[in-house]
Amino acid sequence: MNNESVALEGDRLIMRRRSFSSSSDFSIEGKDGAVVGQIVGKDSRKPRPFGRFREFEIVDASADVLAYVSKVRVPGARGGYALTRQDGSPLAAIVCANSPATVIFIEPADGLPMEFHAENFRHRFDIKSMDSKASVVQGSYRLTGGVEYTLNFAPGVSRDWQVLAIAAALAFDISRRFGTQFFRKATGG
Asked: In which domain of life is the source organism classified (predicted)?
C-alpha cells in the first residue's frame, strides 16, 4: 500500500445506506457531516429480486473512482470481492469466511493481510493487521433509524487502506443482511 495522503479526508468516516433494505448504495461522510464519497451499485437501477449485489464503485466527492468492487467466487468461502483501481490494477481481495463468527479477510495486492472481525452483539468491528495484530480501523454499526457504519482510522492510514476498510464494511453489510444461503443465491456466489 502506498502512503499517499488521505483523499477521503478524515480519520473518521460514516457510511450511511441510502435505502433501508433494497440497496447497497451508501453515502460516505466525514465527521463534520459533509459528503466525501459514495458507494454506488453499478446495477442499482436494474430491476432485481432483493438485489444482485455484484459490482460497485467507490467514488470520492468529485465523482472520481477510487476503486471498483466486483463479486467473485471463492471456493470454501461464503463470498468474495475483487477490488481494482481505476486503471484496472488489482488493489485487494476480500474473502468472507464460511464460519459462524463474522470474519472477513482482506488481502491487499501489495501489503500485509488484514482481518475484519465483528462483535455482533455489541455492534462493533475491528480491522487488524494479521501480522502484528495492530488495529487499523475500529468501528461500529447501527441498524435502527437507517443503517450506518462508523469507521475510526488509526493515524496515518492511507487512502488505499481506507478504501479497503470501506469495501470490507460493504461486504459485511451484504453478508449480514442476506445470510449464508441467500447470499450465495442472490449474488451468484
From this structure: Bacteria
Write the Ramachandran bin of 33: left for phi over 0, alpha for psi from -120 to 50, otherwise beta: left
Residue 160, classed as helix, strand or coil, is helix
CA angle 38, 67, 86 (to 5 degrees): 125
Alpha-carbon Rg for the chain in angstroms: 15
Say what the pTM is: 0.81
Q: Which residues form the domain of 155? A: 12-187
Query: From the CB of residue 39, how many other CB atoms can be counted at a distance below 10 Å?
Result: 25
Find cell 457504519 and name the residue: 149
Please give the DSSP secondary-structure letter assigned to residue 14. E
Q: In this structure, is residue 73 part of a structural domain? A: yes
